[in-house]
Design goal:
Layout lengths: L3 E2 L12 H20 L1 H8 L3 E6 L4 E6 L2 H22 L5 E6 L12 E2 L32 H11 L9 E5 L5 H15 L5 E5 H13 L3 H9 L3 E5 L8 H16 L3 E6 L11 H8 L2 E5 L4 H15 L6 H10 L4 H18 L5 H7 L1 H7 L5 H12 L13 H17 L4 H7 L5 H17 L1 H15 L1
Parallel strand pairs: 3-4, 6-9, 6-10, 7-8, 8-9
Antiparallel strand pairs: 1-5, 2-3
Length: 467
């Protein structure tokens, strides 16, 4: 059978031209979005969006914008809305991705390619367009919390055969697992362009397997999976509880490992915590390398924001706003990046300079949602343990330097990390006057600039207290 280019079934299966049907649907979707979000926001962000490539195998449509920043912002602010709108418009589009146009200035022609399988071969869909270029290793900022996972991912993507397979990456939502999957695929394809790479979510795996059984195409489905030299499965926890699907997944994993293929899976928990998954699957997955990504600490959050600031352009984001974001939004990296994008976008829309008051006002709800109330008592105990003194010394009248300096650090942190007023902090520290607290705060601020050891102590205590 020859390749079919530019033809896709859409809604009624009439075989109309794909570009015509997609353009027609896009026209209706755009009208609805303009009505829902308002003309100003629509004209600023969604009006420039154009149709890109469509892959019927994965039912994924690319929407093109002029810059990586626009792609990040539109995806973060309107991604779910766009996805729902396309799914409501018809069954042909199940996934939507925002991407920078190839020339960085505007749209390209819609390209729809479908490869009709032959009787002997069931090739997987062309996968080059399934991965987002911005999700590469160069754009993945590393720190103590994700260094092992990133190093393992790079080894899995390298030219040399990795010493382990499968690679199991686990961590909570928004910590960078999917980013690493895209980066692995891109790096692997760069040195092995003819090797088959297959990426899908566990939910997609289940859906395709069920559809294959219903249409008596199980062998074609199995052949497509087993042809992969690199198989990437996202959110494996969602395969739990599906008996026949788990059985097929186990056989696929076994066959791919035996053939020397590389397998990477992600989940929100460690293998031993996935109680509803077949123990044989867990044994196979845990037999390679298990790498976790824990929530980013303050150092990594600052590094991520610095990387984004370096490419964001105007309006500039001052250091105090970067520090505010890093200390206020601790839940996950995705939310941290989204908050940064929101500030820059609104700064561009309104023409207002980004300062601390602006950031606090714009992100008040996000900051409240991330707030964990740190108490002065926690701070006193942490400082006492760090400097190896008794916690009662925080409230004592002793002025020996071995006690006074840790007490000043604790006062400084209490002012910085709690909503307590200066008089309240003074009372908690043994009934001291508010002027004593002011002196302590100023002293530690000056010492942080001139004394590396004090600065290192404060940074360590901040990381500990912020979790």
């Amino acid at each position: 059978m020859k390749d079919l280019v530019g033809v896709v079934d859409w809604q009624d299966g009439s075989g109309m031209q794909a570009d015509d049907s997609l353009e027609s649907a896009w026209t209706g979707i755009r009208a609805g979005l303009r009505r829902d979000i308002g003309a100003r926001m629509f004209d600023q962000w969604l009006k420039p969006v154009r149709l890109g490539d469509y892959c019927p195998e994965s039912q994924t449509l690319d929407l093109l914008v002029a810059s990586d920043f626009s792609a990040n912002f539109v995806s973060g602010q309107f991604g779910d809305r766009l996805r729902m709108a396309w799914r409501s418009a018809g069954p042909a589009v199940r996934e939507v991705r925002l991407r920078r146009a190839p020339d960085g200035t505007g749209p390209r022609l819609l390209e729809v390619v479908h490869v009709e399988p032959t009787a002997s071969v069931s090739p997987p869909a062309a996968i080059a367009s399934n991965f987002q270029p911005r999700h590469d290793f160069a754009g993945f900022v590393t720190g103590d919390s994700n260094h092992l996972a990133c190093s393992a991912a790079q080894a899995m993507a390298g030219e040399a055969t990795p010493r382990f397979s499968p690679l199991f990456i686990h961590g909570s939502t928004g910590q960078g697992k999917t980013h690493l999957l895209h980066a692995i695929a891109a790096a692997f394809s760069a040195h092995s362009p003819t090797a088959q790479v297959l990426y899908m979510s566990a939910e997609r795996f289940m859906m395709e397997f069920v559809n294959a059984m219903r249409s008596n195409e199980t062998m074609a489905f199995k052949g497509r999976l087993r042809a992969a030299r690199l198989l990437l499965i996202d959110d494996i926890q969602f395969i739990a509880g599906k008996g026949s699907t788990q059985e097929e997944f186990l056989h696929t994993v076994n066959d791919l490992i035996d053939s020397g293929a590389r397998i990477v899976v992600t989940a929100d928990r460690a293998p031993q915590m996935l109680e509803s998954i077949d123990p044989r699957i867990l044994s196979r997955l845990a037999g390679g390398l298990v790498a976790d990504i824990v929530p980013a600490d303050i150092t990594l959050r600052l590094a991520i924001l610095e990387a984004k600031r370096a490419v964001a352009g105007d309006p500039p984001v001052p250091d105090m706003v970067i520090d505010f974001l890093a200390r206020s939004i601790r839940s996950n990296v995705r939310e941290l990046e989204g908050a940064f994008n929101k500030l820059v976008a609104y700064g561009q829309l309104t023409g207002r300079a980004i300062d601390l008051d602006f950031a606090q006002g714009m992100l008040a709800d996000t900051v409240r949602a991330n707030a964990r109330r740190i108490t002065v008592d926690e701070i006193q105990k942490a400082c006492a343990a760090h400097y190896r003194i008794d916690a009662s010394e925080m409230r004592s009248k002793r002025r020996a330097r071995a006690v006074a300096r840790p007490r000043q650090v604790a006062m400084y942190l209490a002012k910085k990390m709690t909503p307590r007023s200066l008089p309240e902090i003074g009372r908690i520290f043994g009934g001291r006057d508010h002027s004593t607290v002011i002196h302590a705060v100023r002293t530690i601020e000056q010492l942080r600039e001139s004394n590396p050891d004090i600065d290192a102590d404060v940074r360590a205590l901040l990381r500990q207290l912020e979790g």
